[in-house]
Amino acid sequence: MIVMSIERLQNGTYNETEDANTLAAVGALSTGTSGDKETLYLTAYVFSTLMGHESVSDPALLAKYKTIATQIREQLISSKFPFKSEVSQRRKGRLETEGAGGAGAPPSVAELVQYLCRFHCNNFSIHDSQLFTMAEGTFPIGALFNHSCRPNAIVMYEGKVQIVRALEDIEVGQEVCTSYVDNGVQRAERRQLLREKYFFDCLCPRCGDEPQEQQQQRHDDPTVEETAGSLGKKDRMKKTGFRILDDLIEGSQDGVDGKVEGEWLTKQFETIILPGARSLQVVGPSLKPPSTITRVSFTSYIIHSLVPLIQTNAPSQVYTERLFEIYNILQSTPHCTPKPFTTTVMTNATSFFNTCLEHQSWNLASKIGTFVLALYLMIYPRHHPLVGLHCFTLAKSLWNDVDGGMTSVRLSHEILKLSRNILRVSHGTKGENSALVREVEEFMKTVETELGA
Ligand SMILES: [Zn+2]
Fold first, then answer.
1. So where are the chain's domains?
2. What is the pTM assigned to this prediction?
3. What is the pLDDT of residues 235-253, one digit of tens each?
């Protein structure tokens, strides 16, 4: 990771001897640990290269930061921390520390405001292995990874250590991207969040307007334009790949804003979600998904199409191609409005699932959880930790579902295989987070004993 960071730094070459002194200037705010000198120095250097976007930040926020900075500076002065501010002069242009005072003086208020702005634009929510947020922190090297709403890597934590884990096979030369926002929120909301906090417009595989190769092809070949023109504007604008996803989950294509009434949701559960979940009972690696999909069978279609690929660790390309087929099929299938698989429905269903778990309504929870799984598989990368964690909870619910008999126990085992394969990637097989993988494996043994396997 460090080598990659150095290559991506464009405004100077990291020099350990010189940059070691940067610590004096940013020492009080550095997140490195004293146990690893190189990481600490590099972290401090990379921090000095991060963007703070002060010039475009909200004036109210800047005023707040100025107040905080003034207080911090007073505390730094009274702490008598041994700052080496002469370093600042040598680093002129990078840290802009002129006026910071003589030797031994702490950073100026302006510098501290700059640091706070860098924190604001580059901080991470630190979460535990169950994805519960525990704290906020700035990890300068981790902040160098660019964003994608369809990331191929995920940020995880083991204590105070940040770990960037690949979610899929990544080719040599392919960019490694993490996600700065929840991939389960709608495009407009993601765009707003990214613009407000990180000051950019996302052009990732989900958000971009047109695949680059298509633009290039039209540019190079005039007959493509002619053909496209004869197809009409609608077909020309037809999206491919991940670009279809947001149209599907937004439910705004038909002019409906995706707002869901409780009554409508209940009806959907009765007519679509519950029958869909029942068909999971025949899932297995040897079974093929149905060749057609109706408006009531999309849950089982998604589950049948994708679960065997996850259980058998199919290559990323095979999985992605299957996913695109599903998007195309869902796009060309007539659905009721609002659509039954928008993110609004997903949020409602997730909350309903949690309520069922709280009330130990295992049968209903298992069905709702299956529906949620189908939506998660449609929206999140397959090895996303959220998907693995959901599978584990769903498997427990299925196992507890006495009404479902041995069928539920068998289903629980299928879902556990899914959970194990996903968590092995998202949480790893070594280190603190792998405890969860072992927990899943232990539970699998219990279920297998019951199945007599
Ligand atoms: Zn995006």
1. 2-121, 207-241, 262-451
2. 0.78
3. 445 788 999 999 888 864 3
